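Example record for the data management plan.
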Amino acid sequence: MKSIVKSLTAFLIVVITFTSAEFVNANSSTADTLGTTEYVDKEAEFEKMERSLLYGLSSDVNGIVEATLFNAISYKALNPEFESQRVNTRITEFALNGDTHVVRYKAHLTLSYLKDKESFNVAESIIPLISENKANDAFQVLVDSIQERQVAESSN
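Corresponding structural encoding:
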């Protein structure tokens, strides 16, 4: 029974990961072909993003939640105007009450990025990681950015 649950969990993580990768690739290819992004009913697109994130954040499986947190960072990096109070509220719940310290920490990083993306100044380094689907590296970029700001603030 445990092997079935593990297999199902692994399958769901792979599906969510590939879904986010397809979303990133679709956005990248559109931007590459057109030279600039065209307005495509952003409201409907943002509603889809919100539903997708809320669905992933409703999972009891930590791996799915972590993948969804990476998706939230990806969406925000590629669509800076994306905002969702419902998603922020759910991520806050994970930051405070997540099952593991990894989930809590990643939720805190994600929430910080969603609320104040500009202060991270990591667009050039995080977007390639998103397109390569390197979640842990993307989270590390956020950590490094926070540490750099702390060092800069303490030396002033």
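Summary line stored alongside the record: The helical segments are 2-34, 42-57, 62-78, 85-97, 101-115, 117-120, 123-131, 135-155.
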